[in-house]
Amino acid sequence: MVRSGPCDGEGTADGCRWIEIWVFVDRFDRFGVAGDWNLAGYLKGFWWEGSSLRLGMTISNGDGDSAAKDGGRERKRKRRAEPSLVKWKTEGEQKTYSSKLIEALRRVRGSSAAGAASATTDHSRGRAVREAADRALAAAARGRTRWSRAILCGRTLKRRVLPRAGRPKPVGRARAAERSKPPALKTKARVLGRLVPGCRKLPLPSLLEEVSDYIAALEMQVRAMSAIAEALSAVGGAPSAALAEGPM
Amino acid sequence: MSSRRSRSRQMSSSRITDEQINDLLTKLQAVLPEAHLRSTDRVSAAKVLQDTCNYIRSLHREVDDLSERLSELLANNDINSAQAAIIRSLLR
Questions:
Q1: Which residues of B touch A165 (CB under 8 A)?
Q2: What is the pLDDT of residues A61-93, one digit of tens each?
Q3: Full domain range(s) for residue B54
Q4: How much is the pTM?
Q5: How many domains does chain B have?
Q6: How close does chain B come to A36, measured CA to CA in Å?
Q7: Contacts of A134 in chain B (CB under 8 A)
Q8: Contact B10/A173, CB-based, under 8 Å?
Q9: Cα dihedral sign, A232-A238-A243-A247
């Protein structure tokens, strides 16, 4: 049984509205992707189920059809679709990401110009760019991975302490599993979990899956940002007056 | 996942998990740079995890550097819609 909670927070990221909806679930269910994303739509709501993040509805901004998914129906899904690493290498994905990033960068520029010019240092602008890039990357992941959801949650919404959904963890089994790994591995795994957003307390198999996807996504991010930087230097090389003269 | 929690099967579940972990580590190692230099026989878990951490850190650094570079470029040249269109066409 799913009870919906109050709408606790909302934020804006890259022009999308993010609304946090709390849902408390009586029994644990393997979380799964709530169907396909409508590419022209935005993530409208998502909620926590115990300690897993469930995907909620997507509502289009008007470009495409709304694709509302019922989270209740999707809970019956037994297997989670494995996120494919190949998509991060496709040109199409990179182009989509680059376009989104360019739009986000335009907004960053706009907001930093609105503030006091002397107050914004290079570093704070760089940080704003980094955060915009990360958010765009997380959005490109379409909510299928924990790290992407953690980025989207952490950057725009207030942090929340998650109430446990009353699912008791069998402590004995957890301890037995830990003993099977030598402490050196545990330390390294913990370090790794800290490097990837949202994966601190993940068991090793899930952590390794998240890490592979995260690395592939980061590589795409580097490729896309380098291309944009090159394009910007090429465009910026011409005096801006020439560009202002007339449309090219 | 809830089915694996039954205590009577806890030893077998950790054996299954170890194989799974080894598989994932091999897959992860393939993604890391210099994967072709390594022998594909042995997967030292500690080394793979260490290399992964280092690689992620270096990727983070690259992204930070690129962000700085982009922010400098943005500071000098505002992106108006015409330039955005040009950049998009350059990326095509």
A1: none
A2: 333 333 444 444 445 555 555 557 888 888 888
A3: 2-91
A4: 0.63
A5: 1
A6: 23
A7: 63
A8: yes
A9: negative
